TrEMBL record:
Name listed for the protein in its UniProt record: GFA family protein
Ranges in a coiled coil: none
Superkingdom of this protein's organism: Bacteria
Keywords assigned by UniProt, alphabetized: Metal-binding, Zinc
Sequence ranges assigned to domain CENP-V/GFA in this UniProt record: 4-115
Amino acid sequence: MQEYLGACHCGTVTFSFEADINELVRCACSLCTKRNAVMATVERRRLRVLSGEEALSLYQWNTGMAKHYFCSHCGIYTFHQRRTDERYFSVNAFCVDGIDATKIPVRQVDGKSRSTV
Ligand SMILES: [Zn+2]
């Protein structure tokens, strides 16, 4: 596994995690479509918020099970705790240092059929 660092746009929220990033995920639900998210899969226990935890806002919708976090200063989506398996987070690939999101295969997932809104 490799260690990665990530941050929101304004730099208030910084985080680190260990993961093997072999693929990224794009989800077709209405939220991921609007935020244009491309995400890396990270185990919850391997993700640490280094700074700005108090600046993170939580957005919940649909069943309210997933926890979508974004920086309350710059508005950038950083990561979310998944609805289907709370042991995993999805991390905004474009917030992560040292990965070229355009060079990693992207898997499309059908989050739309699992949502009611
Ligand atoms: Zn920010």
